Amino acid sequence: MVITVYTIEMAYARMRELQELADRSRAHRTSAASKRAAKKAAKKR
């Protein structure tokens, strides 16, 4: 029988990991959106 002990530290580490991924994803989306906006602005001129 295997008993997995899930500690507060493990939960906190996982939460930080997910938050980091979310931040990276958000930063990527923001930079992609700003690049698209710059292209649109350039076309309008």
Structure notes:
With 45 residues, the chain is an all-alpha fold. 82% of the residues lie in helices and 0% in strands. It has one helix and no strands. It has one helix at 8-44.
Quickly list its features.
1 helix; 82% helix; single chain; mainly alpha; 45 residues; rod-shaped
Residues in helices, as a percent range? over 70%
N- to C-terminal distance: 69 Å
Total number of helices: 1
> What is the residue-mean pLDDT, rounded to a whole number?
83
Tally of DSSP β-strands: 0
Task: Characterize the biggest β-sheet.
Answer: none
Structural class call reads mainly alpha
Shape: rod-shaped
Low-confidence stretches: none
Based on CA atoms alone, the radius of gyration comes out at 20 Å
Strand content: under 5%
- What is the N-to-C succession of helices and strands? H
